[in-house]
Design brief:
The protein has helices spanning about 5-10, 15, 30-45, 65-70, 75-85, 115-125, 125-135; strands at about 50-60, 85-95, 100-110, 140, 150. By secondary structure, the protein is an alpha+beta fold. The chain folds into two domains: about 5-45, no CATH class; about 50-150, Alpha-Beta Plaits, CATH 3.30.70. The termini are far apart.
């Protein structure tokens, strides 16, 4: 296997991570029996992603434009999210009261250096251009720091039956001023 371990190949092979057996070798009864064990071992040793939640207001006047932007996001922005190890990213909308809307964002961070990856995202010109489009649609919540758009939230409950002893995430750092989605 070109010097790499089977564990590495299993972790890297996306079809295996989804539970589809695609080995570049003859499948035997032994490999069919071994595959679930290998997958279980790999899933147990993979690091858990760091979970982040955040909130910002969105103006009623710009709400439709904000929806349009996110209905067809720019590929360069999506690519930068991937490079910055952002996975499972979603934004939710709620009408808090008549004419007051909030956006809730959630993402998993799968990298090893959150600050460096966020810095790289902040330096990306396509992402900066995206933020210039989305920032005028947003209204910071009252507890936001000056210049801050999204306010990071503290996780107070987490349940995932696959990881019964997974800890709560520590209170997250705030995004730097000017960052938005």
């Amino acid at each position: 296997m070109s010097g790499r371990s089977l564990r590495h190949d299993v972790l890297q092979h996306e079809s295996l991570r989804k539970g589809i057996a695609v080995f570049p070798m003859k499948t035997t009864r032994f490999t069919a029996l071994l595959l679930p064990v290998v997958l279980a071992l790999c899933s147990c040793t993979a690091p858990l992603p760091q979970r982040y939640g955040m909130v910002v207001g969105v103006t009623k006047e710009k709400l439709e434009y904000y929806r349009q932007l996110h209905a067809d996001p720019w590929q360069g922005v999506l690519d930068q999210l991937d490079r910055s190890e952002i996975q499972n990213y979603s934004i939710w909308l709620v009408e808090r009261s008549p004419d007051e809307y909030l956006l809730f964002g959630y993402f998993d961070y799968t990298g090893e250096n959150f600050d460096a990856d966020m810095e790289a995202m902040g330096q990306d010109t396509e992402t900066q251009r995206w933020w210039r489009e989305t920032a005028p649609c947003q209204t910071p919540i009252p507890t936001a720091q000056p210049g801050q758009q999204w306010v990071m939230m503290e996780e107070i409950f987490y349940h995932d039956g696959r990881y019964p002893n997974a800890p709560l995430m520590p209170p997250p750092p705030a995004f730097e001023a000017g960052q938005s989605n």
